[in-house]
Description:
The complex is a heterodimer.
Chain A: H1 2-14, H2 16-56, E1 59-63, H3 81-93, E2 97-111, E3 116-124, H4 126-132, E4 140-143, E5 153-157, H5 158-163, E6 171-177, E7 183-194, E8 205-208, H6 209-215, E9 225-230, H7 236-247, E10 259-263, H8 264-267, H9 270-306, H10 308-316, H11 321-357, E11 360-363, E12 366-370, H12 377-404, H13 407-412
Helix pairs in contact in A: 1-11, 2-9, 2-11, 2-12, 9-11, 9-12, 11-12
Chain B: H1 12-25, E1 31-42, E2 45-57, E3 62-66, H2 73-80, E4 88-93, E5 96-97, H3 103-113, E6 114-117, H4 129-140, H5 145-158, H6 174-186, E7 192-196, H7 204-221, E8 224-229, H8 232-235, E9 240-245, E10 248-249, E11 253-254
Helix pairs in contact in B: 4-5, 4-6, 5-6, 6-7
Residues 73-74, 196 of chain B line the site of magnesium ion.
Amino acid sequence: MGRVFKIAARNLLRYRRRTLLTTMLITIGVVAMLLFVSASGSFKAMMVGQITDSMLGHLQIHKKGYVSSIDSLPLTMNMKGDVARKIEDTLDKRDNVEAWSPRIKLGAMFSNYAETTSIRINGVDPEREVATCPDLRDRIIAGETEPLVERGKILIPELIAKGLKVEPGAAVVLVATNKDGSVNGINFVVQGVLEGISGPGGRDGYMHIDDARELLRMEDKEISEIVVRLKDPKKLEQALADFEATLSSLTNQEGKPILEIHGWEKLSPFAAIAKMIDLMTLFIKIMLVSIVLISVMNVMIMAVYERIREIGTIAAMGTQPGSILQLFIAEGLLLGLLGAAIGTLLSVLIIQVLQKAELTFSFGRQTGLVLYPVVQPADVILASVMVVVVAVLASLQPAWKASRMDPIDALRHV
Amino acid sequence: MRCADGSKATRFWNLKVTDRLTHGRRMMSLVSAQSVNKVYRNGEVEVAAVKSADFEIEPGSFVSFVGPSGSGKSTLLNLIGCLDRPTSGDLRVVDTDVAALDRKTAAAFRAQHIGFIFQDFNLIPVLTAAENVEYPLLMVQNWPVARRRKRVGEMLEAVDIMAQADKYPDQLSGGQKQRVAVARALATRAKLILADEPTANLDHTTAYRIIDLMKRMRDEFGSTFIFSTHDPKIMEAAEMIFTLEDGKVGPAERSESHG
Lengths: 414, 259
Ligand SMILES: Nc1ncnc2c1ncn2[C@@H]1O[C@H](COP(=O)(O)OP(=O)(O)OP(=O)(O)O)[C@@H](O)[C@H]1O
Ligand SMILES: [Mg+2]
């Protein structure tokens, strides 16, 4: 095999400029793909991480119909305390669950005694919430962060803090209407201000779950949702299917399941953007394949054409068609390997520069997000394998043609 | 005399067996043609390039096919070289029916028994002189490295091109290239060396030297040389001459200079 590669390599060196150009083309393709994949991949991972780790968790359990009317935060669609307990028991028994957190979601009027606005609030158990959404605390841009939220205090969204000029420590009053229609107001102290992020719930305030119950004068320990954090987010689909199966045993009198389960993808519009990114990645891959296919095939067709007499000579000497095939495929393979290697090297370098540069970008209302592209070994392997395989495929036809040549015709060729 | 290996099933290893048989029985002819015809068909047009050729060539001969352009020299040499098949007639080379060889077995047969020398030298440009000589041993016959080195050295020595061993073809003169080509053709100790106008691209002096070298190689290694030429002076160097005219092969003539 080594001898075949030696001859192939020498032939590539013989047409140095052409080899260089083809290698450059492949290199550009590889760099384009790896840069795009690593940049979009890290953007996606960051956004998904932010959404799941500071807001939505990996999956959520609600009473059936809650999510479709989530905009109005309907208290009538909360899960009863006994149902909640059953769910919590189930979750505790699952070893794919890292943490879970119950929430009461409510809408209220927020007043700083001068101005009033509406606010959406999550009533949470601070410890469970932090375990389930570990990055939530990072979003507190002003005020105390430990514990997440104390009794009698609230975390308010940045928008309200700015709009009503409320700072941590300020006394405010929250007024809410409970399920039965009676109104209740409680005084709170602003503990901190939460940075807003894109997506549903990205501009909600937080208070202690017991304060929420008090505000709403709840007797039963009912909740609006349970947020679940999985040990392995990649196994979301499995977990969803598993919970679906288990929790569908909780039914109403008509035997219909009373709960609904959603993965974060169903709850956040960012999932659509993530899908777009995947689609674009696919296009880039198709482009890479086309570049390699066309450039290698082009070079190999030329190589075979230019070397017809050489092919005739070695065929006359008794070189088996299979060996001639190998000689040309080896050439395509080497081109692919060269392009993949240089492309990977260059990509890693560029990515390192990008990491150092700490380029920032904005997404929606969020500004100053740092683009931190990371090359995954899997992507490098994928790109390299793609390039090499396609390079070999592209040289197959020309190589086959060379191996089938009639020695007399080939020798007569001028 | 017919040989079982003339069948389609002829293979590399079978050929080796045939080889030994041949030696054992002391075959009379290395090449034997009986009413060999070659007709080229280009659509409606038919060209009879070789017409009813009959000849025998003994092992160790130094033979020339001579004739004007278009007389069928190349066609005949291609047939003998198992690069082409006769349209009709019986052509046996090293005891093998040429017509019975298919693409692969013909390649194996050539690899084993036939060496080629070309008018345009046809060295592989990316290989040095030594590597060109090594090529058939390495890429065709798959010899182990030590044996290969030894043989390449011997051959370069024999054609007196040792000093140019590491030069690439484009650094060699025409005569030097043809020496390398002779060494390459003989590297496997092929029984039969075919050279279609080996001197056409060389000046007279060099041409004679190459023919002389070929003859010395025949003396040294016992291979049979068949070359074609349209140059009457070069022709004289052959020991046996077949004259071709319009596809017809004349009777064998002993060259005067060889009595
Ligand atoms: N592939 C082919 N198709 C059709 N006709 C052919 C083909 N090859 C050779 N011929 C014809 O066969 C005849 C013999 O050609 P050949 O090449 O054998 O002659 P030659 O003696 O080698 O000539 P030269 O000295 O010019 O090389 C010529 O008339 C030629 O035109
Ligand atoms: Mg000719």
